[in-house]
Design brief:
heterodimer; A: alpha/beta; 22 strands; B: 8-stranded mixed sheet; two-stranded antiparallel sheet; 11 helices
Chain lengths: 627, 312
């Protein structure tokens, strides 16, 4: 862990404005020159259940959260003490997560009082939220509206926390003003005033001295532009738009909905059609229909929705549609599972979605830049190899909110794959013309036409078919068609560059090689950094990015060099470990696994790796320490 | 294509061997589709025919047009996706009664709500043909065809009433062996802007020994069992679609009429209303949609840096 880094947390009932408060705080910090990594944990519930948002402030880029909290903003008592249940405690509250010397900001007019806590090594800052808000509103002659504007008590609390963390209140006020412009400018001013009064309250209670110094984390970014505060779902949507997406279909499901709603909100500006369907089956079938008509089409879902879509993947593969691209935002399974929590448990499912043997591709990006690139490239693969592509992402990647200076967008070229040119080919009215939509070619990819193209009439069927697309059960044709379709994966494997298949992070020659995929990347990078500093450990990380076609030769080469292998996955069984063994014969003897519905914190992973390195335990389980 | 060239039904035929049973009602429907397309003079490359699974699923292979033989129950979302992507296409969806009202019931209902401009023809023979004659959703309670071990113990659903309730804006019933009337009925359905549904009574000589050609064409008390709605002076067309009163009245009339069965089976148009299509709704949101099919939009030069900057 880095001594200078600060963890700020806000907790309260869902529907109480946690997200907005945390993001205003995060943006203000980012605008002030700090690097931000943040994430929200929430229940499958609209109002009332406990939710919290953690923000890590640092001088340099970080990619994960820490367990210890420096400043905790409590919007209710439950945030501090948890929800005691006679048999099963839902969560034990966050007070115990405060580091020694930490600060808890609470509503001194609420139910909590410091006597209820046994912590004597932390400081409580009690602020009468509503009273301070009334005072702020009074200055604008709006005191009577206090109850209606009650959510602004959050701003009072955040203002108080800015003093505790040693931050810049003017920066927060400026961010608040930026959020409310034009006719709503007064709301921004009132919020700024509420924040300032909260700040002054905390200053008074803390004797004018902040225990922490967030300002010291500020570092000019050296760029003309401020950094973005971006989520994985933004990077995904931007990659798809850049790729020339025509149509997005979806059925609402956590945690995939955010991406589709973001796209829907900008569809008018971006010339995009977003359709909310009656279910996931309709979503994928509509996307297949559109792709067959020439559109770049995609759909986004989570595990339960993907379970409904799978026949569509088989159909799209059988009829060699260019697409669709399916974005699978994993969440805790099985069945309804943990709808709003993290899991990496759908890798094997994404690899084997439907009956029969058919080609499709699966790619698993691990951070915003990779999500952007893979979301873009997936459409090229879909068109070039005429198959469906699954982009495997997860809840943690979708919701993590982090500073990023820029998305690298160079060298992204749209490739729609081979098109049929009807010149010289008559497509007779009797349907006996020269165009063979599924004609045998060296690569297995047959040039496509689209409905509406004159001379390009073809038939496509989910049954086995001849090169023209008509049904046949002929054995010889079956053999050739299977080889044509499956062979496209070999072509893809040859053509796709190595960096899209796997990424080796850290030194080439390491004492320990960690192996993993997707969203564990961030925690692994931070843990490797800490282990290098504190334990002098020289580790690297082999991140498998392309899952199908599996880069067996590249993975074998990377792993056979390793002195010691440890698998890191956010699931129960180590699904990538099984895949590596299946494809390369390499058995990774030790696994660090976490399957409690939460991502790895930096410390959790550091300790788990230390435990693994100290012995030869095959499975090291990590369990969550936060609510 | 030369402007003066006249398309004939032959232009919509394919040389593919048709493997339906001898005497199958499906032959009548495929010929009627070909005749309807010739009547409308739509070039084959501008037509896309979609099907589900089952005997009717093979229809696209027998029509010279873009043909997509999709999955069981999923024909309508496929057809919808294609139409939304390229609204210049004439989109025809076909399927059986099991495909449309059993496994595909959710898509049948929700497609009606959207009112996308396509034509859906259901080959309604009350049985699952390709799996050898099990009862389908339109087979009445108590009926037992020759291939069923036990009679049906569920009620049949009413496709016409279901279509009306779902929002289809052209709802009709045809008869597969009506050589004269069916092509024009299908042509009218294709011409109608919005979701058209035609429930086509189709004889399955192999498995359904109850709803046979002889039964359907029988005379009851000197009158044919099947009669045409227009011959009775029935008018299902909504003259003023902005009148909610008239819309509801015409729907109620159609639903009531749809429960006539047994000795009197009405055919023809039960209900028709010119209401805004999904595509017309999209024109409001996406003005380009009015003039250019979605697949031809310039989406390859989007500048996403503005979106990135908005996150700063």
């Amino acid at each position: 862990m880095h001594d200078g880094d600060l963890i700020w947390m806000i907790g309260g009932p869902q529907g109480g404005g946690i997200n907005v408060s945390a993001e205003v705080f995060a943006r203000a910090a980012a605008h002030g020159g700090q690097r931000v990594f943040a994430n929200i944990e929430y229940h499958s519930n609209i109002m009332g259940e406990h939710s919290y948002y953690k923000v890590r402030l640092s001088r340099e880029d970080r990619h994960s959260l820490l367990d210890g909290v420096h400043v905790l903003v409590a919007l209710d008592e439950e945030t501090l003490l948890g929800e005691p249940h006679p048999e099963f405690t839902s969560h034990p509250g966050h007070l115990r997560e405060l580091v020694a010397g930490g600060v808890a900001v609470y509503d001194s007019a609420g139910r909590f009082s410091p006597q209820k806590s046994s912590r004597t090594d932390i400081t409580f800052v009690g602020v009468p939220y509503m009273e301070v808000l009334r005072q702020a509103l009074k200055e604008f002659g709006r005191e009577a509206d206090a109850n209606r504007l009650r959510v602004m008590t959050n701003t009072v609390a955040v203002g108080a926390s800015v003093f505790a963390v040693g931050g810049d209140i003017e920066g927060l006020c400026q961010t608040l003003r930026e959020d409310f412009k034009g006719p709503r400018a007064q709301i921004g001013e009132m919020n700024a005033r509420a924040a300032t009064l909260g700040y002054e309250h905390a200053a008074q209670q803390l004797g004018g001295r902040s225990p922490f110094d967030a300002r010291s984390l500020s570092a000019p970014n050296g760029h003309a532009k401020l950094p973005m505060l971006i989520r994985g779902m933004h990077a995904c949507a931007m990659g798809k738009l850049k790729a020339g997406l025509h149509l997005q279909t979806y059925y609402p499901i956590s945690p995939a909905t955010d991406e589709s709603v973001y796209l829907e909100a900008i569809q008018r500006d971006q010339n995009l059609l977003v359709v909310q369907c009656e279910d996931e089956i309709a979503s994928i079938q509509m996307a297949v229909g559109a792709a067959n008509a020439g559109a770049r089409a995609s759909t986004s879902t989570s595990g339960p929705g993907f379970a409904l879509m799978v026949e569509g993947i088989g159909y799209a593969s059988m009829t060699e549609v260019g697409g669709p691209v399916v974005f699978l935002w994993q969440r805790g399974g099985p069945s309804t599972g943990l709808p709003t929590r993290q899991d990496q448990s759908d890798l094997q499912f994404a690899l084997h979605p439907a009956h029969g043997e058919f080609p499709h591709m699966v790619v698993a990006p691990a951070d915003c830049q990779q999500i952007f690139e893979d979301s873009f490239e997936a459409f090229n693969w879909a068109d070039r190899y005429q198959l469906p592509v699954v982009v495997l992402v997860d809840k943690y990647l979708s919701t993590q909110y982090t500073t990023l200076q820029d998305l690298k967008m160079e060298n992204l070229v749209i490739d729609r794959g081979p098109r049929f040119n009807p010149n010289g080919h008559a497509n007779g009215h009797d349907g006996a013309g020269g165009y063979l939509r599924f004609g045998f070619t060296e690569s297995g990819v047959s040039p496509r036409s689209f409905p509406g193209d004159e001379g390009g009439i073809f038939w496509a069927t989910s049954d086995e078919h001849d090169p023209r697309g008509h049904i046949t059960e002929d054995a010889e044709n079956r053999i050739r068609m299977m080889e044509k379709r499956m062979g496209k994966l070999d072509v893809a494997a040859r053509e796709i560059p190595t960096e899209r298949k796997l990424v080796v992070h850290g030194p080439r020659d390491a004492d320990v090689t960690l192996v993993g995929w997707g969203s564990v990347l961030g925690s692994v990078l931070d843990a490797m950094d800490t282990l290098a500093r504190e334990d002098n450990l020289r580790a690297n990380f082999v991140q498998v990015r392309l899952m199908r076609p599996f880069p067996a030769a590249e993975v074998t080469s990377a792993l056979s060099r390793a002195k010691r292998l440890i698998l890191v996955e956010n699931n129960y069984s180590g699904q990538l470990g099984s895949l590596v063994r299946e494809m390369t014969g390499i058995d990774i003897p030790q696994k660090v696994l976490k399957y409690d519905g939460r991502p790895f914190s930096e410390e959790e992973l550091v300790e788990a790796l230390r435990a693994a390195l100290a012995g030869s335990e095959a499975r090291v389980h990590v369990s969550h320490r936060s609510a | 294509m030369i402007a003066e060239q006249t398309l004939t039904p032959k232009d919509f035929k394919t040389p593919v061997h048709i493997n339906w049973c001898p005497g199958c009602g499906d032959f009548g429907i495929v010929v009627a589709i070909q005749e309807a397309l010739a009547q409308l003079q739509i070039p084959p490359h501008k037509v896309a025919v979609y099907s589900g699974i089952g005997c009717s699923g093979k229809t696209p292979h027998y029509v010279n047009a873009y043909g997509f033989h999709t999955l069981h129950g999923r024909v309508l979302p496929n057809a919808t996706g294609a139409k939304l992507a390229n609204r210049e296409l004439t989109v025809i969806a076909v399927g059986g009664d099991g495909d449309g009202f059993g496994i595909g019931a959710g898509y049948f209902v929700n497609s009606g709500r959207r009112n996308v401009d396509f034509t859906y023809l259901v080959f309604d023979n009350e049985v699952y043909g390709l799996t050898k004659g099990q009862g389908a959703p339109t087979l009445s309670r108590g009926q037992r065809t020759k291939s069923m071990p036990e009679p049906a113990i569920q009620d049949s659903l009413n496709p016409i009433a279901l279509a009306i309730g779902s929002g289809y804006t052209f709802v009709a019933r045809g008869y597969a062996l009506d050589r004269k009337g069916l092509p024009s009925l299908i042509a009218a359905a294709i011409r109608h802007p919005g979701s058209s549904f035609v429930d086509i009574l189709q004889t399955c000589p192999t498995y359904n020994d109850l709803m046979t050609k002889d039964w359907l064409e029988a005379q009851i008390g000197g009158q044919p069992r099947m009669y045409r709605l227009e011959d009775e002076g029935y008018d299902g067309v909504v003259a003023n679609p902005s009148s909610v009163h008239e819309l509801v009245a015409k729907k109620a009339q159609a639903v009531e009429k749809s429960y006539e069965w047994g000795d009197c089976i009405p055919t023809g148009v039960f209900y028709q209303a010119r209401l805004r299509t999904y595509e017309e709704e999209l024109e409001e949101r996406l003005p380009q949609y009015r003039t250019t099919p979605l697949v031809h939009w310039d989406v390859e030069h989007r500048d996403v840096t503005k979106l990135a900057d908005a996150l700063r």
